[in-house]
Amino acid sequence: MDDRLIIAGKSYSSRLLVGTGKYKNFTETKSSVEASGAEIITIAIRRSNIGQNPNEPSLLEILPPSKYTLLPNTAGCYSAEDAVRTLRLARELLDGHSLVKLEVLGDPQSLYPNVVETISAARTLVSEGFQVMVYTSDDPIVAKQLEDIGCVAIMPLASLIGSGMGILNPWNLHLIMERVQVPVIVDAGVGTASDAAIAMELGCAGVLMNTAIAGAQQPVLMAAAMKKAVEAGREAFLAGRMPKKLYSANPSSPMAGIIGSVRS
Known about the structure:
This protein is α/β, with parallel strands linked by helices. The chain has helices at residues 26-36, 80-93, 115-127, 140-149, 170-179, 193-201, 211-214, 219-239; strands at residues 5-7, 10-12, 16-19, 40-44, 69-73, 99-102, 131-136, 153-156, 185-187, 206-209. The protein is globular, with a radius of gyration of 21 Å.
């Protein structure tokens, strides 16, 4: 079955997107990304060197644009103005690259999105030709507004960034998926492989994570587990689970024709 993730007109075989921060070193970063099978990788422009500091090692040396789709993000930005400025810099550093991840945070403690500033930044970026994948709350009304602005993917949080709490409100994710046509990608809060599988079983188009892999005791092994979880969750969604039946026992094997069975 040809079941590829399509974002801004480009298709990808992997539905797992991964970040590149919080690893011990570049070797661990490279090995983890490779084990994840991800084709889209996020780069925090304010925290990672991709050429703006010529005297320091560049992340692009181990994760080249020829192999991965780079997704510059605005991690650490708390205003629309800072976010827009950061992504303009990213486009300049990456020779006109237009696919970006927008996130505007509300405060440094919760890292919850500031949706007012997010919407403002999205309008500016879309008007300037950026293809915006946007981190936001799990509010279906806001998600629809961001799609109407022109964002190419909606990325609601499952729970707070770095919390590892998993999906706290699956019902809102359902509401978002019912209302928008662009891909819905769970972003933030995934803690382990089962969280990723659940997100995919719900029908999300993909999952983005960083801390869940980088913060694991064995990041490379966790990256491989996340790859399998996303694939299994997607296949389970496509297969269609059996209906839940409270208090209705049903043998897994047919009883008809069994010797000694009672016939009506």
